[in-house]
Specification:
Helix content: over 70%
Number of strands: 0
CATH topology: Na+/H+ antiporter like fold
Number of helices: 15
Largest sheet: none
Strand content: under 5%
Oligomer: single chain
Number of domains: 1
Structural class: mainly alpha
Shape: globular
CATH architecture: Up-down Bundle
Amino acid sequence: MQGVLSGFVVIAVVIGVGYVLGRRGSLGPQGGAVLTRLAFTLAGPALLFTTLADADLAVLFSSRLLVTALSTAAVCGVFVAVGAARRWEVGRTTIGALCCGYVNSGNLGIPIAAYVLGDASLVAPVLLFQVVLVTPVALTVLDLSGAGEKGSVGRRLLTPLRNPIAVGSLSGVVVSAAGWHLPGPVMDPLTLIGNMSVPAALLVFGMSLHGNAPLAGGRDRLPVLLSVALKSVGQPLVAWVLATTVFGLRGAPLLDVVVTSALPAAQNLYTYASRYRVAESLARQSVLLSTVVSVPVLAGVATVLG
């Protein structure tokens, strides 16, 4: 338990440093953008590749992935049902549903898996599920609803192949499945580059907290509150029930699936909303508020299950 709490302290300190950097403007107006590109186009993929290349695929493709998939489907389904009942637009409902179940497996998932759970590969099933399945389906719905450009469905379905983190993860899975052992001159530079991922991601997250207000109100108040409740409480609760009653998980495996389910909504959901010009305020507020709420939720999960 002490190790888990220490991990949260380490994360909190680095996030705090990022917040100070953002408040002071120490890295300039483009500092956060540069660190983001570094983490998600180079360092993050390198970390996941080197981790998964030596990972046990029995852990990767296990009941934990099913718990994640089912809990995601459950909370997203609830939001879609409410959206249909209240006649919200398809695009707005789609973005809101993503905010309920699409966890921040990059910015927070990787460092929490590395520092709190002790193994960065534990976030890989969630990341792969989201990038390979959830993202193409959601973006296809946005395209078909008229939010996207006509004729772009096929291009959206190829999204995973253009995502550096997905490419790095899938490449690592291929290497592990094939039983290949890459030589030191190949793995060592990748390991060194991958070591930048966690601190860069946490610094960026801390910088993003400066100058953003949580709930702004207006017509998005109900969707925001609903999405945050489903994301922060509903999904980890559903994951816990499924993991214990259906799949019989206990100890570390149970902690893994509940912690990953309790992660806040992913920041790239706002990117999707902005690209399609739909529900931008809903995405921005849901991501920020769920991130704030996730701190006590994750601490509570670690205390109870750790």
